[in-house]
Amino acid sequence: MAIRAAATSAPTARSSSALSLPPPISSSSSYSSAQLSFGRAKSTTRPRTTVGCAISCTMTREAAAVTSTEKDDSDPALWSRPDSFGRFGKFGGKYVPETLMYALTELESAFNSVKNDPDFQAKLGGILKDYVGRETPLYFAERLTDHYRRPNGEGPHIYLKREDLNHTGAHKINNAIGQVLLAKRLGKKRIIAETGAGQHGVATATVCARFGLECIIYMGAQDMERQSLNVFRMRLLGAEVRGVHSGTATLKDATSEAIRDWVTNVESTHYILGSVAGPHPYPMMVREFHKVIGEETRRQAMEKWGGKPDILVACVGGGSNAMGLFEDFVKDKDVRLIGVEAAGLGLDSGKHAATLTKGEVGVLHGAMSYLLQDDDGQIIEPHSISAGLDYPGVGPEHSFLKEKGRAEYYCVTDEEALEAFKRVSRLEGIIPALETSHALAYLEKLCPTLPDKTKVVLNCSGRGDKDVQTAIKYLKV
Amino acid sequence: MTSLFHFKTTAGHRHNYPQVVCPNHAVIGGNRHFKTSKSTVNPSVLRLNKYGTPAIDPPKERLEWVVDTKSPSTGKFGRFGGRFVAETLISALEELEVVFHHVLQDPEFQEELTTALKDYVGRETPLYYAERLTAHYKGQNLGRGPDIYIKREDLAHLGAHKMNNALAQAMIAKRMGLTAVIAATGAGQHGVATAAACAKFGLSCTIFMGTADMEKQPSSVDLMNLLGAKVRPTAGSFKDATSDSIRDWTEKLGEVYYLAGTAVGPHPCPTMVREFQSVIGRETRRQAAEKWGGTPDAVVACVGSGSNALGIFHEFVRDPTVRLIVVEAAGFGLNSGKHAATLAAGEVGVYHGAMSYLLQDEEGQIICPHSVGVGMEYPGVAPELSFLKETGRMEFYSASDEEAVEAYRRVARLEGILPALEASHAFAYLEKLCPTLPDGAKIIISCSGRGEKDTETVFNYPIS
């Protein structure tokens, strides 16, 4: 028996998706309305019949079409990440206004067509190499390793994946480049994005300047004041920065405003979402554009020590840098995946951003995932000293990996992150972003538990020049 | 204040090298202005190269001196360079030179350096085809113009080429058994790079910085502190910090390692810095061969003291088909007295231990330089560049503050790259250069650093 929600599945390998979609269905897309449709029609186009509220039995070829979770799913290689609805287990999905459904489907088709297009991949690869500066090194952090060496000389070996060396200083640009090339392919001339601290805004403005597209960035008015330097940068790069004054005038309000703009201008505009959150196909797409991080790591690990990493550690805000590192290794059950969130002023203080530890499942910005909400279902304003981790939700795939037990999630306070910031600067001469510092701080708890010569790869997701003022204030260096 | 180490040459200084009046120097936005040491030009020696500018092939043996690093030398580049220091420093410099030549031949050192450059600094940096910048200039000239490539030193760790040299020299310090490093910095880039390299190798680090510079670049000071270095303020600016640090070195010989940041100073510092920066040029040659199967037609770099320029030029010095172009800081204009255009407006003298061009007044006092790009504010210039100027191998031009800021904005808008204000001077010169070049000529610009540190300056700069 196959039950499908309405008009959400977009079969792969269809280039003229506009003409072959079923007509819009009047009932809203929810789990309860059952429609008959043949999903995952990769090989043939089967006739589509739309039936009113009736449930029918269908024989389908793919066992995976059955959405129940009764089959044995302990093998990560068999998980649908995502399935054709954009769901990772029960997480993910496409909880958006009807006007956006078509845009999302179009985006998904375009993405699927470029995934296997050698010209597109070659162009993307060339830009990542010459413009962004890939591949980024896998750096053996000798002094950090020494720092964690136990008195008997044993300890793990710590490697840093240097995403801080990318153009614009963070991993964010991998996704921005991929999405802007996709937008060009779709013939869009206008790009919008939201930003909190400004990093994603700067990355978006950068790629728009590079490819000559109009760029509008939505930023909370409060954030604009706190991050005026990033606002300057976006303007220098030719982007228009629009302040959002509604609500608390921060990231989540900027996101809502950006979505509103997209709904209005969907034909001409592409929305560059910065993380693996949001409605399908964004979590999958953003992960795929960041996947290069993990792929390079695998190759570099093989070169350096002839094996795989034992543990991967990354900070988690929305979750894009973590998914980028983890993705290639999810099916390797012998590789531990560890995500580190922000505990802010402490988990009990109420001022944190530890979504996976303290959150509950709900729908935010188009996807079902863990999020920080109060008893009335209102979003709790998160807090972290690092703006990039200051997001009340988390990517649905992380929620899925946590529920499956494939990945472990911990959290680290502002103070611990600041200590790590200073420690790594002094020991390695690398100034990590405060976001990354959360992952680095977790090493304090992790390393004593690890056997000798365990290979730990930590994603150094960004550089910390932007955080020096903040850190100096708190550390009184 | 007078440095211990400089004095003006007398007019009758004897030399064998033809003095070239460099008509290829053009003053942008000002009057034509030539300044050379007092001597005559022998017209029979002048001939024109393919661009119509005077070309003189320096005698082969002199070019060998420029490129030779295999054995100790007097450290002279023609009449420039040398070792004009107090006697106490001579033995330290000689020891340094011996160690330097030793590490150049030592495969273990070279392997460790290469790995560190790759994994820590992020080399090799890309040679990036600037599609929109190229189209911009072609569009102004009926679709014809050069192809512009950018050597992305801004992508190196800490955002400037300075790291290449700081890393190698920190390794030398370790090899010499020294645990303390001192250095002088102007804009702060070299100070930050040194502090990072010392952190990486566990060496203690003291950076001398002029108080005027500390005020202009407080973020650099914060970075150095964070990286564990001590910042020692000196009254004045970079030139005073350099003098102070050399003095400190003289006092603490055998205890500290003096990490030269740029290709100035007494021999072997200019050669060492150039050698460690020359990785830029070697990569560029290989990448150019991969991309279009040839060499560049012109290589353009900004010059403050000259390390990034020498780094990219060195590989191509012996290729007469490659034009070497430096762009200095004209500040408020060459006639304003507020600039840093040493090659254009300087005279030959000895400064910080080497003979080179420098900005000095009639009494031989150093003129305080000015540029919106703080890293350009050095009143001297690398002796090797003085030599390349005098032999006509290199062309030198200048760009004003305003032109540099405009170039910063242009490159930001067209390529999404924020070049350091220093590097922006090189980009500014494209405005004059591109219209003169044939269609499809290959230009490589050295983007020596990233410009996030300059965002506020540029944003607030009053453009008329």
Automatic annotation (TrEMBL), chain A:
UniProt protein name: Tryptophan synthase
Listed cofactors: pyridoxal 5'-phosphate
Annotated Gene Ontology cellular component terms: chloroplast stroma
Region (Disordered): 1-26
Keyword Lyase attached: yes
Residues covered by the Tryptophan synthase beta chain-like PALP domain: 133-462
Swiss-Prot/TrEMBL keywords: Amino-acid biosynthesis, Aromatic amino acid biosynthesis, Lyase, Pyridoxal phosphate, Tryptophan biosynthesis
Matches recorded under SUPFAM superfamilies: Tryptophan synthase beta subunit-like PLP-dependent enzymes
Pfam families assigned to the protein according to its UniProt record, in alphabetical order: PALP
CDD domains the UniProt entry points to: Trp-synth_B
PROSITE patterns assigned to the protein according to its UniProt record, in alphabetical order: TRP_SYNTHASE_BETA
Annotated catalysed reactions: (1S,2R)-1-C-(indol-3-yl)glycerol 3-phosphate + L-serine = D-glyceraldehyde 3-phosphate + L-tryptophan + H2O
Pathway: Amino-acid biosynthesis; L-tryptophan biosynthesis; L-tryptophan from chorismate: step 5/5
InterPro entries (UniProt xref): Trp_synth_b_CS (IPR006653), Trp_synth_beta (IPR006654), Trp_synth_beta/beta-like (IPR023026), TrpB-like_PALP (IPR001926), TrpB-like_PALP_sf (IPR036052)
Documented EC number(s): 4.2.1.20
GO molecular function annotations of the record: tryptophan synthase activity
Superkingdom per UniProt: Eukaryota
Keyword Transport: no
Organism: Linum trigynum
TrEMBL record, chain B:
Lineage top rank: taxon: Eukaryota
UniProt KW Repeat keyword: no
InterPro entries named among the record's database cross-references: Trp_synth_b_CS, Trp_synth_beta, Trp_synth_beta/beta-like, TrpB-like_PALP, TrpB-like_PALP_sf
Ranges for domain Tryptophan synthase beta chain-like PALP: 122-449
Catalytic activity, EC: 4.2.1.20
EC primary class: lyase
Reaction(s) catalysed by this chain's protein: (1S,2R)-1-C-(indol-3-yl)glycerol 3-phosphate + L-serine = D-glyceraldehyde 3-phosphate + L-tryptophan + H2O
CDD domains: Trp-synth_B
Name listed for the protein in its UniProt record: Tryptophan synthase
Organism: Linum trigynum
